[in-house]
Design brief:
Blueprint (H helix, E strand, L loop, with lengths): L14 H14 L7 H9 L18 E9 L4 H11 L5 E4 L1 H6 L1 H9 L3 E4 L12 H19 L5 E2 L8 H9 L3 E2 L4 E2 L9 H17 L4 E6 L11 H13 L6 E2 L7
Parallel strand pairs: 1-2, 1-7, 1-8, 2-3, 4-5, 6-7
Helix pairs in contact: 3-9, 6-7, 8-9
Length: 260
C-alpha cells in the first residue's frame, strides 16, 4: 500500500488531468521512485478508503444525497434553496470559511430551511499537499466560522477536490468531523458547461452507483472557491432536471447525516 508520507498528491481532477500532472512531474525528475498510480488513487479517488475511512454513500440504491460545495454564494444559493423547497427536498451544503464570514445571512438561510451544513475549509486549498499545521488551521477555522453563525457544532467535512492523505483524515477525526466524498459528479465547475451535460454526468454516476447497490452522493456547486459571485445558474437548472427525472417519493433524498 502506498504511504501518504511518500506521495506527491494532487487535487481531484478527472483521471486524464491527474495523469498529465504526474507525467509532467516525472519528466521534471520530481516523481522519481514514486508509486504514482497508487498514491493518486488513494488520495484522489472519492471512493478510495486506502488512506482512511470516509463517508461516500449508503447501501440503498433508491437514496440520493444532493450535495453542494463552495458556497454560500448570492444569488444562486438562494435560488437553489427555493427550488429545493418547492420539491420538499433537503440537501447538504459544504461551505467555505471566507465566504461564510462575508455572507453569514445566507448561512442562516440554509440552516433555517433545514439543510445540513458542513465544513469545506477556510480557503479551499489542496489539503494533500499543504503542511499538517495548515490542514488543522483550515479545518478549525471553518468550524469556528460556522459555529459562530449557527451556534452549533459541525459534524461533517468535505476535502476540497477530494484530496486527502492520512494525516488530513486524522486531523478531521480529532475535530470530530466525518470526511465526506461522493460517487456522482456533475463537473459543473467546467467553463460553459450546460445543465443538460451536468445532469448527464450525474446520471452516469447514479447508474454506476445503482449497479453496485449503493446510494448516490451527487456533487454539485452553488458557489466558486475563488470568490463570491460565481455563476451557478446551470447547476441550479441541473438540480431541477435531476429532481424531475427522479422525483421525491420514488427516490428518497437524504442528507449525508442519514448515511453516517
Amino acid at each position: 500500500m502506498p504511504s501518504g508520507n511518500n506521495c506527491i498528491l494532487f487535487a481531484n481532477e478527472p483521471a486524464y488531468t491527474v495523469h498529465h500532472m504526474l507525467l509532467a512531474l516525472a519528466t521534471a525528475g520530481a516523481a522519481a521512485g514514486l508509486a504514482a498510480g497508487g498514491c493518486a488513487y488513494a488520495a484522489l479517488d472519492p471512493r478510495s478508503q486506502l488512506f482512511g475511512s470516509t463517508l461516500v454513500a449508503g447501501r440503498d440504491p433508491s437514496e440520493f444525497a444532493l450535495t453542494y460545495d463552495d458556497g454560500p454564494n448570492d444569488p444562486w444559493t438562494g435560488r437553489l434553496l427555493d427550488l429545493l423547497e418547492q420539491h420538499r427536498v433537503r440537501a447538504t451544503f459544504f461551505l467555505i470559511g471566507r465566504h461564510i464570514r462575508q455572507r453569514p445571512d445566507l448561512v442562516r438561510e440554509i440552516h433555517a430551511a433545514g439543510h445540513l451544513i458542513g465544513n469545506h475549509t477556510v480557503t479551499h486549498p489542496w489539503l494533500a499537499i499543504v503542511s499538517p499545521r495548515r490542514v488543522r488551521d483550515e479545518l478549525a477555522g471553518c468550524n469556528a466560522a460556522l459555529e459562530d453563525v449557527l451556534g452549533a457544532p459541525v459534524r461533517f467535512f468535505r476535502p476540497p477536490h477530494g484530496a486527502r492523505r492520512p494525516d488530513v483524515l486524522r486531523a478531521a477525526h480529532d475535530l470530530d468531523l466525518t470526511a465526506v466524498l461522493w460517487n456522482a459528479m456533475g463537473f459543473d465547475w467546467r467553463p460553459n458547461i450546460s445543465a443538460a451535460r451536468i445532469a448527464a454526468y450525474l446520471e452516469r454516476g447514479i447508474a454506476r452507483s445503482q449497479r453496485h447497490q449503493r446510494g448516490s452522493n451527487l456533487l454539485l456547486h452553488d458557489g466558486g472557491h475563488l470568490a463570491l459571485g460565481a455563476d451557478r445558474s446551470q447547476s441550479v437548472e441541473a438540480t431541477r432536471l435531476i429532481l424531475e427525472r427522479h422525483p421525491p417519493g420514488a427516490t428518497r433524498y437524504v442528507t449525508v447525516e442519514g448515511w453516517a
